[in-house]
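Q: I'm writing a short explainer about DUF211 domain-containing protein for a general audience and would like to include a description of its predicted shape. Could you first generate the structure from this sequence?
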Amino acid sequence: MTITTRLVLDILKPHRPNALDFVRQILLRNDIHRVRLNLAEMDEKTETVLLHLEGTDIDYEDLVETIARMGGVVHSIDEVEVREAADARSEAD
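A: Of course. Here's the predicted structure. Afterward I'll give you a sentence or two in plain language.
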């Protein structure tokens, strides 16, 4: 079994929620413990952001739904780190 521990996503989002509220909503998820957002581009209605996520076992499909509920769309997965579940457990011990 594998687990996803790190993702970098290219996301298109509206100006609202702002970056701080957007990141806070994502951080409320139990499987994510660190989030960093970098603004890449901005126009009148949208922002393109790079979202750097670290977690214990990130549920990608649920994450995409969380982003969609805030009006965002994932354009691409730019970076991913996946581990064997046993490796992750031994690091936690």
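A: For your explainer, you could say: The CA atoms of residues 37 and 51 lie 5 Å apart.
Q: Perfect, that's easy to follow.
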